[in-house]
Structures are given as structure tokens and as C-alpha cells.
Specification:
329 residues, mainly alpha, glycoprotein, chaperone
């Protein structure tokens, strides 16, 4: 058996022999250790977790992702789950009029994808705002680094080594997110801090941190040995072969055996476009009854539980303000 023409035994030996040189670089893969982080947690290899990471887990489908992808709010999704069926369908009908851009009473694939991408942005804004509210101790609607430090690391931030890579990366992320350099992060700047993977102006910093973490020989690229780092120490041969296959055929797009800047960012930053397209396919499979590749309002309302959910409880007639859906896409 070979890996890109290299005998497998020689390949494994070369990888494991080279592991110690990667230890220092991979020991501090930058992960925000915030208690309140949801979608922007990091994977084992250092990449940002895709938004649909929990859509399917161990073969089980979690419908919460579908509901949040339509409503753009965890709080709204939880409320819809408690509404009587008729009220849930009534509210969904209002959303469909906003989703239907050409006003033809059908939801086309492109319309649903645009809505889902909008929802992803709203979910990130909601997550970020919740954390800003927690960190904003003086309640002035913005946060300083000291407030973030307290919220992130607890009541004794002095105990954190000031040269710690995690701390350094976090502070640098704050400083780059602070667009006007006034020492405060407002709502938009704080979203850039908490969700740099969804903020293109933060990508150069993500690339810089990745190279600092992984690029042991400082050549501006990440080889496979640098990519796996010391993770391989506790893994078996099957894991190593799986990671090599993933590196070769998913990450190393030009096949030169290393990751360049574009390939590193493609690995680090999940594509919401691809996730939204997959979600459109998923929702169409479950609701396009006549297979005409578009969804009528009736088809969606008939399958309302796929889109927004309902437990048919007598939650009452308490209505949340739905005006936030009235702005244009």
C-alpha cells in the first residue's frame, strides 16, 4: 500500500520520526476558552467548527438546526417549539412572505438559500450580543479588553501568564477587531472578535495565528507533519491514514504536499455557502412533495414542523415581535 506513491511503512516511519519537532507549534492551537461560545468552537485540528456541526450526531438528526436556520434565532426557535400548531403555522406564513423575493407564492432554492445565509448571520449576531451583554459590566453598550478578560478568564486574570499563546492571540484578536482603535468594541466590532471566521477583515489575523501555531520551519506553508503536530502521538495508524487522506484530497487542493495561504484559510474557515446549500437540499427532500424543485407555501406549511417545529402545547397567545423579519434581504 502506498500514500501518493510512498510505501506506507516508510511514510508512517517518516511521520512519527518527525513528530517531536512539531510539538511546540501545535501545543497552543488558538481556541477561545469562553464559556459562552457556541458555533465558533474549534475542531481538534484547529479549524473553526462549521455551523452545522451538530446537525447530525452519531447518525441522529437534530431538527433544532433546521429551525434555527429558518428563524435566525435560538430564542425564537425555542419559542416556536412551544407554540400551538396553528400559531406556529401562522407565524411561519408571515415569514414566507418575506422569504418569497419575487412574490410568486413559491420559495425557490435561491430564495431559501439567501434566507438561510441571512439567518446564519442573525444567529451569530445573537450569540455575540448575548456575550457582549454578559461582559459589559458597566452597561455602556461596549466592552473594554479588561471586561473581556474578566468575562473570559474569570476573577483572577493576573494568574494567567501574560506570554501564554492563547492569551496573546486573544488580545491581538481584540485589537484587530477594534476598527476605530478607541479601546472599546461596539456591537459590530465585538461580533468580529467573537466570530472572526465570519468576518473577512479578520482573515489575515487567522492566517497569521495558524502559521504561528503550525509552521515550524517558518517557510510560510504547512506540511502534513506540521498539520498533525503532536496529535498523532496518541492516535493509531488508521487515524493517521485518514488524516493524510483528508489533507491530500480536501485541504491540499493543488496537490503540492503543503498548504499555502488560500488553502490554510479554506481549511480554517467553514463555508456557510456550502452549509446553506446542503440545508436547502435537506429541507427540499423533506417537503417538496410534487418534486417540482420549488416549494409552495402549502407544502411548507404542511411540513411546518421541519421548518419551525411545534410541540402542540397550549403555550397561550403570547406573541413575540416579528417585525425583525420585515427588513429586506
Amino acid at each position: 500500500m502506498t500514500v501518493r506513491g510512498v510505501p506506507i511503512l516508510l511514510f508512517l516511519a517518516a511521520v512519527f520520526i518527525s513528530l517531536p519537532a512539531c510539538d511546540a507549534a501545535s501545543a497552543h492551537i488558538h481556541t477561545h476558552q469562553h464559556n459562552k461560545v457556541d458555533s465558533n468552537e474549534r475542531m481538534e485540528d484547529g479549524a473553526f467548527s462549521p455551523r452545522d456541526a451538530d446537525h447530525y450526531a452519531e447518525g441522529e438528526h437534530h431538527q433544532e438546526f433546521d429551525h434555527e436556520a429558518i428563524l435566525g434565532s435560538v430564542k425564537e426557535a425555542e419559542e416556536f417549539d412551544k407554540l400551538p400548531i396553528e400559531e406556529s403555522k401562522k407565524r411561519l406564513g408571515i415569514l414566507l412572505t418575506k422569504m418569497d423575493l419575487n412574490k410568486d407564492k413559491y420559495i425557490e432554492r435561491n430564495e431559501l438559500k439567501a434566507w438561510i445565509l441571512r439567518s446564519f448571520s442573525m444567529l451569530s449576531a445573537e450569540e455575540s450580543q448575548d456575550r457582549l451583554d454578559d461582559a459589559d459590566t458597566d452597561e455602556d453598550g461596549r466592552v473594554t479588553w479588561d471586561e473581556v478578560l474578566q468575562d473570559t478568564y474569570g476573577s483572577d486574570p493576573e494568574d494567567l501568564a501574560q506570554d501564554d499563546k492563547l492569551f496573546k492571540d486573544d488580545k491581538e484578536t481584540f485589537e484587530v477587531a477594534d476598527l476605530n482603535k478607541d479601546g472599546y468594541l461596539d456591537t459590530d466590532e465585538f461580533k468580529a472578535y467573537t466570530h472572526p471566521e465570519e468576518t473577512p477583515r479578520m482573515f489575515p489575523l487567522l492566517l497569521k495565528h495558524a502559521l504561528e501555531d503550525k509552521d515550524v520551519d517558518k517557510d510560510g506553508y504547512i506540511s502534513f507533519q506540521e498539520f498533525i503536530g503532536d496529535r498523532a502521538k496518541s492516535k493509531d495508524k488508521e487515524w493517521l491514514l485518514t488524516e493524510k487522506d483528508k489533507f491530500d484530497y480536501e485541504h491540499d487542493k493543488n496537490g503540492d504536499g503543503r498548504l499555502d495561504s488560500d488553502e490554510i484559510l479554506s481549511w480554517l474557515v467553514p463555508s456557510n455557502e456550502e452549509i446553506a446549500s446542503d440545508e436547502v437540499d435537506h429541507l427540499f427532500v423533506g417537503s417538496d412533495d410534487d418534486h417540482d424543485n420549488r416549494l409552495s407555501f402549502d407544502e411548507i406549511l404542511d411540513h411546518h414542523d421541519i421548518f419551525v417545529g411545534s410541540e402542540a402545547t397550549d403555550y397561550g397567545d403570547h406573541l413575540q415581535d416579528i417585525d425583525r423579519f420585515s427588513d429586506e434581504l
